[in-house]
Design a protein that fits this description.
mainly alpha, Structural Genomics Hypothetical 15.5 Kd Protein In mrcA-pckA Intergenic Region, Chain A, 3-stranded antiparallel sheet, about 5% strand, ribosome biogenesis
Length: about 180
């Protein structure tokens, strides 16, 4: 291969991986991360890996005979799970939609993006800040992780924390202030 690396060369190259580059993919990852305010590149890579696994599974299922009961059952389970998660924007996704699944579909189900879509906040950056500061809950549980994927069922229970100043200001704006409830 070549000569042995000297001590100072080893120290410089210790954290460099020549086989796996994060900067590949034509900067699409940076564009998606900026649009959906994904702060951790590891989250993007996890979503990308899940998308690849789904595409691979769809391809393997497509190789089975069309009337195979195993194929039909697994396709139905996969489509139902993804529809329940809200990954597809439609109620009844088709098998052909599995090939088109993207990382952006998973990013659209992140908590700050869902909050912005429900008009709880003006933009995704503010939503991320509110989640990190502890102003948001899903059901009775406080959520401080902006990387949480919100399913369609969880979306109905998304609200502000009871003691939140944001909730109080919204109630004041709508003239629905209840001092007992917001105290």
């Amino acid at each position: 291969m070549g000569r042995q690396l000297k001590h100072h060369e080893k120290k410089l190259l210790k954290k460099v991986d020549f086989l796996d580059w994060n900067e590949d993919q034509g900067h699409r990852d940076a564009q998606v991360m900026r649009m959906y305010h994904v702060q951790n590149r590891g989250d993007y890579q996890k979503y990308n890996k899940v998308c690849g696994n789904i595409r691979q599974l769809a391809h393997k299922l497509a190789q089975l005979p069309p009337q195979d009961p195993v194929r039909l059952r697994h396709e139905e389970m996969l489509l139902e799970k993804l529809a329940q998660m809200g990954i597809f924007g439609i109620k009844r996704p088709k098998v052909s939609d599995l090939e088109k699944i993207s990382v952006a579909a998973f990013c659209r189900r992140r908590l700050p993006v869902v909050m912005a879509r429900l008009h709880m906040v003006p933009n995704v950056q503010d939503a991320t800040k509110m989640v990190e500061q502890g102003h948001v809950r899903i059901g009775p549980q406080l959520v401080t992780d902006p990387a949480l994927l919100v399913t369609t069922d969880m979306e109905d229970f998304l609200t502000w924390v009871d003691g939140s100043k944001i909730k109080r200001k919204i109630a004041e704006y709508h003239n629905k202030v209840d001092d007992y409830e917001l105290a």
